[in-house]
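SAMPLE LOG
Freezer: B-3
Tube label: C17
Construct: single chain, 210 aa
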Amino acid sequence: MTSTPRRVLLLAGLGGTLLPLAARAQQVDIARATAFIQATGQELVAAINATNQPVAARRERVAQVLRRAVDVEGVGRFILGRWWRNATPDQHAEYLRLFEQVLIHNLSARFGEYQGVRFSLGRSQARTEEDALINTVVERPGNPAFGLDWRVAEVNGQPKVVDVIAEGTSLRLTTRSEYSSVITRNNGNVGALLAAMRQQIQQLSAREGA
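STRUCTURE (predicted):
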C-alpha cells in the first residue's frame, strides 16, 4: 500500500476510526457523545502510557477499547465500497478480521512515539441530527499540540466514532481511497488488498517488538 503520513496512521488508531454513518444511526445526544469520547480517550491514553506492562498486554487493552468503540463491519464495508460486491464471503470475513488488526497495530506500533500523550476536550457541536463533532486537543512531550475532531453517532443504541478528522482530513475517506487504489492497480483483485494488509500488520508488529 502507499505510504501514509505518520500522524494519519496514528490518528486512525486513536480514533478507532473511519466509520460510515450507517442506516442504523439515530438522533445523537451531544452530552452522551462527549462523555463517550472522554471515556474512550482516557482509556486509550492509559494504555499507551502503561509502561509497567509489556507491549502485548497494552495492545490487548487497546484492542478492547477499539472493539467497543468501533463498528468494524460498518467501517470495513464503507471503506471497501463498491469492491465489497466483488469479494467472496471468505474474503469478507478475512478483510474484516485484518481491518480490525490494522486499527489495533497502527496504534500499538507507536507506543514509544506517543509516550506521555495527553488529551483535553474542546467544543462539542451537533453536525447533523444524527451525528456530532467532539473536538479534542492532543499533546505529547516535545511536539506541538494538534486538534482532533471525533465524529460520533448513535448506532444500535450505542455511541460510536463514525469518523476522525485531523487537520481537515477525513480518515475514513483517506483509507477508502488508499484501499481502492490498491485493488484498482491489481485489476480489481480484492485478494491483493488482503495480501497488502497482511504485510502491513507484519511490519507494524515488527515495529512494536511483537
